[in-house]
Amino acid sequence: MDTMTFTKAGGAFCGALLIFLLGAWGAESLYHVGSDGHGEDHAMGYEIEVASAEDDAAPAEAEPEIPFEEVFVNASAADGEGLWRQCAACHKLEQGENGTGPYLYGVVGREIGAAEGYSYSDALAGKGEAWTPENLNGFLLNPKEWAPGTKMAYRGMSDIEDRANLIAYLETIGG
């Protein structure tokens, strides 16, 4: 290798750098839409109005929640059957066949914590109530809040219609 080869390589590197710098400058001048770019005539975008601090002070009106009893009257067991797939990972519908969770055959109306052969957490074992549609609704909405200390890892079902449909389906199984 001689000096001429190093000179050529250095010149090629400087030339490539110059082309990239000129390209970046050209692209910036073509596509920059700031106030020092092409001016307001050519700015490509839309102004989005946001709420001011005074607007935030007014409380937002929440939608009135429909009582569960009214939703449950119109619940569809057929729609609930489709929702059952979420539960089937841990629960079974056959009497006496527990999975990770207790079997749900005849669960609507059954005493809480009374599935044969299943070891309940203290949170549910000592409830002393029955699984009414209202109790199931509360439990399915947020199991950890309804029965603090429950073993159920499910985070809850937020849609009231989905809960009503699922409970209507469970009511048809062994009830």
Assembly level: single chain
How large, in whole angstroms, is the Cα Rg? 33 Å
Taken from the alpha-carbon principal axes, the silhouette is elongated
- Low-pLDDT ranges: none
Q: Could you state the CATH homologous superfamily of the largest domain?
A: Cytochrome c-like domain
Q: Could you tell me the mean pLDDT?
A: 85
Can you count the helices? Answer: 8
What is the H/E string?
HHHHHHHH
Helix content: 40-55%
Please give the structural blueprint:
Blueprint: H1 3-31, H2 53-57, H3 68-73, H4 77-88, H5 122-125, H6 133-141, H7 143-146, H8 160-172
Helix pairs in contact: 4-8, 6-8
Notes on the structure:
The protein contains 8 helices and no strands. Helices cover 47% and strands 0% of the residues. The chain folds into 2 domains: 1-35; 68-172, Cytochrome Bc1 Complex, Chain D, domain 2, CATH 1.10.760.
